[in-house]
Prior knowledge:
With about 180 residues, the protein is α/β, with parallel strands linked by helices. Helix content is about 40%, strand content about 15%.
Amino acid sequence: MKIVVGVSGGSGAIYAISLLKALKELNIETHLVVSTMGEYVTKHETNVTLEELKSFATYFHDNKNFAASIASGSFKVDKMVVIPCSMKTLSAVASGYSDSLLTRACDVTIKEGRKLILVPRETPLSPIHLENMLKLSKMGVAIFPLSPGFYNHPQTIEDIVINMTGRLLDMLEIDNNLVNRWKGL
């Protein structure tokens, strides 16, 4: 399996790191692309540098490199996730504005009929945000807000992040034991 992982400038870089580490542990090939603000926010929120972030991925592609493999539909990947997904990136994807490798890879994923998951991190949501998400959802793009549940009684931030990572792996159709699954009463 090959998965493209995009990191844009929304808050929540801790989730991108967790996902990349989980995919690496599962020996899944990853192609990482990071926006300028994605790099900035990751460093600001987690103290993880771009070099460290790259070490969690199989391959890294510069966001300005439109000649990268992931810019072409003929390069076979299975799925793509943008985590976190800024509203700027979400808007660009919704309008087909491929001004970076990250948004081009999303465009390619949609046009090739592959699974694309956008993980927005914004609150509150404006009507523009909601309209863009609805437009993308109608195209088959999965919108996966970072809205953790608390029925599993998380004790730490890491508990929340790991559970959400497991839920995201579920969306990517990857078996995992990270989710504290509801068993009923």
